[in-house]
Amino acid sequence: MRTTVIVLASAALLAASSAAVAAPGTSVVPGSGDLAAGASLPGVVAAPGGWVDYTQTLASSLTLQNATTTTFGGTRAADGTCTVAGAGSTTAGSSGSYQEEVAFNPQTCQERVLSGSLSRGDLAQLNAGTGGLSNTVQQATSPGTAAAGVQQAATKAQAAAATSYQQAYSKTAWIDPLNITITSLAVNLKWPLYGAGGTLTARVNPYDFPYDGWSSGGPSPIGFQSVSGGWAVDETDQFTNTDFATLVYAVFGLAGWIACGAPLTATAHFNHNVTVLGYSNGNRGWAWNDSANGACTDLVHHAAWNDYGWTS
Prior knowledge:
seven-stranded antiparallel β-sheet; mainly beta; disordered N terminus; eleven-stranded antiparallel β-sheet; 18 strands; 4 helices
């Protein structure tokens, strides 16, 4: 289940309005939220077997290394919402990783995901595209002996008089059919290395497209969690919007309404649950558990990326 958002994109949608069609004999269940079989809009095509293909992606402008495409099963909630999730870890000095949904099946909650590694330059390009902050940034620090209880065998040999630190981030985004990021959530963590005493610092940066009618309660309060060999910060945020669905209905009329699955509402919710992990030996980890539900949400797809460093 997915959605979109863009007032500035109205000209592009108008120019492409002739592409919005529904196949003859298409059966639509009002309120289902599924893209009708045979329907299309700019950047989105309904493929056989209930799949929705996303034809405009962020990855198309990136140099993705070791790229693979994998089909994953999703999780459906009682209200029909499909959740996309992922997790991983890597060793110090490794390249940042990237995952983007290129197809989605709202009937089964399956998704096809393009994955690979990215250069620092491509990651900087990605982060610059969602760097404008339209919500309050949160930052927190935990002073004192943050490394207590995470001592390792080499602690005494490696701990320096001045504590060494590492930092990493994890970030997810929802992207509309015109390849515009509409919401994102970045979570940053800075932690001490090699079992030395030090402080934990975290920052969370929420983002929504600045020219639409968004509402959000803001990110959850920052809390540090102890994990085996290190620490984690887990953050959530939910964004609500009505503009995109309203725009689709206005521009495309009945065809747009059918392409959106004939919903009985114009409201859509975009949910982020992002985790970043830092380990005393310098390794890092990441996880996400995101979802979208409401009007036209099948038109929007998901991306996630992570790396060492600090980002908005």
